Amino acid sequence: MVTLKHLSVKERDEDGVPLLAEADSAESPGIKHRRESREFFLTQRKNLGLSLALLLSCYSAILIPAYLPTKQPTCIESSTEDYMVIMNRSAALLSRPCISGLTKATLQKVHSTAVNFHSLVQIAAFLQNGTRHWELPPPLGLLGSEGMLAQALRVLPNSGLPSVSNKCKRCMVVGSGGTLHGKHLGAHIDKYDIIIRMNNAPVFGFEEDAGSRTTIRLLYPEAASFLPQEYQNTDIVALVAFKRLDLEWLISIVTKKPLSWWNKLWFWRDVVNDIPLQPGNFRILNPEILRRTWKILQTYGKHESMTVPTLGFTGVVLALQLCDEVSLAGFGYDFTHPGSLLHYYGTVRMDHMMAQVVHDVSAESSLLRDLVKSGVVHDVTGAVWQTAGLIHQTKIETEKNINNTQI
C-alpha cells in the first residue's frame, strides 16, 4: 500500500464536490491559450460559412436570370396595302432609266446654312498607298497607326471598285433593320449594280427579303461573320478600322497568318480567323468618311464627342460617293413597338437601340430624313420619315417633362 503524504483534500464546497488543493488556483497559461485558439477557429468557421453564403448569392444573382423566361421580340406584319405600296415603289425605281450624276447634282442643290452636304462626296472611298497627315486617331482618322496602315496597304493589291458594266450605277444600301423583315424585296435588291451591306447581316437563309448578292460589305473584326457561306457572291470586304489592332487583323486575314493569342485578347469578342476571299477582295474604308459624317451630325442638335456614325449611315455616305442613284431598304426604327425586332434577323429587340449611347440615332435619323426629303436618296421600305418624326416627338415630350419638373 502506498500512502500519499503530501496530498490534502479541502472541505467539500457547497455542492459537495471535493476539490484538489491546486484546482482553485488561476487557470494555467497553456489551458488559456488552447481555449483562445478554439474560439478563434470557431470564428473562422463562421467566417467561412458567411463567405460561402455570399458567394452562392452572387452566383445566383448572375446565373438564375439566364434561366428565367425572357420577352421574345415580336414581328410586326405589314398589311397587304402597305406591302403593295413598298413593292410598287421599288418596281417604279427600277423601271425608270438611270440618270447619270443624279445623286451628286441633287446634293449640290440642297441648301443649308449649317451643313455642307456636298463635302460628303468629295472623298476617296478606300485608302490607297501614299502618305498623308491624320489629325485624329481611329475611327475618325488613323493618327498613331500610320506604320500598321502602311503594312496593311502593302498586302492589298487593289484599292478601287470592282468593274461594273453599266456606266450609270445604281446603289442599294441594305440596312439591317427589322423593317425589311417580310417585305420580299430580295429579287429587287439583286437587280442593283452595287449592293452595300454592313457587318454580319446575313444573306444565307434570308435571300427572299435581303437578296443574295453583295458588292461591298462594311465591317470591323468583331462583327465579321463566322459563316463561310456569307462571303459567297461578295466582291469586296471593306474594313472600318476602329483601332490599330483592326489593321493587324486585316493583315492576318489577307496573308492567312492567324493572330497570336495575345493580340486576340484585346478584342472585345471572338474574331474570325479566316474569310474565304482572295487578297484582291479586301479594302480599307477611308476614315475621312466617318470624320466628315461625324462633323455634319454635330449640326443636328446635341451630339456627344464619344459617339460615332453607325456603319449603316456610313454605308449611305459611301453610296453617295460611288453611285449615280442611291436607294435604301431596311432603314428606320419602329420605336412605337419596343418589343419588335431590331434587325430582320436574330432576336434583339428594338428597345436595345433605344438604350445605347454609342451612336446618335436621333441626329442620324434627322439627317437621313433630309436626304430622303430632298430626293438625294430613295427610301424603298418607307420607314425613315416615320422614324425621324417619332424621335422628334419623343424629344419634345422629354423636354416638356423636364420643364414641368423644373417648374
From TrEMBL:
<dbReference type="InterPro" id="IPR038578">
    <property type="entry name" value="GT29-like_sf"/>
</dbReference>
<dbReference type="InterPro" id="IPR001675">
    <property type="entry name" value="Glyco_trans_29"/>
</dbReference>
<keyword id="KW-0735">Signal-anchor</keyword>
<dbReference type="GO" id="GO:0047291">
    <property type="term" value="F:lactosylceramide alpha-2,3-sialyltransferase activity"/>
</dbReference>
<keyword id="KW-1015">Disulfide bond</keyword>
<keyword id="KW-0808">Transferase</keyword>
<keyword id="KW-0325">Glycoprotein</keyword>
<comment type="similarity">
    <text>Belongs to the glycosyltransferase 29 family.</text>
</comment>
<keyword id="KW-0812">Transmembrane</keyword>
<protein>
    <recommendedName>
        <fullName>Lactosylceramide alpha-2,3-sialyltransferase</fullName>
        <ecNumber>2.4.3.9</ecNumber>
    </recommendedName>
</protein>
<comment type="function">
    <text>Transfers the sialyl group (N-acetyl-alpha-neuraminyl or NeuAc) from CMP-NeuAc to the non-reducing terminal galactose (Gal) of glycosphingolipids forming gangliosides (important molecules involved in the regulation of multiple cellular processes, including cell proliferation and differentiation, apoptosis, embryogenesis, development, and oncogenesis).</text>
</comment>
<dbReference type="GO" id="GO:0000139">
    <property type="term" value="C:Golgi membrane"/>
</dbReference>
<feature type="transmembrane region" description="Helical">
    <location>
        <begin position="48"/>
        <end position="68"/>
    </location>
</feature>
<keyword id="KW-0443">Lipid metabolism</keyword>
<keyword id="KW-0333">Golgi apparatus</keyword>
<dbReference type="GO" id="GO:0006629">
    <property type="term" value="P:lipid metabolic process"/>
</dbReference>
<dbReference type="InterPro" id="IPR051142">
    <property type="entry name" value="Glycosyltransferase_29"/>
</dbReference>
<keyword id="KW-1133">Transmembrane helix</keyword>
<dbReference type="Pfam" id="PF00777">
    <property type="entry name" value="Glyco_transf_29"/>
</dbReference>
<keyword id="KW-0472">Membrane</keyword>
<keyword id="KW-0328">Glycosyltransferase</keyword>
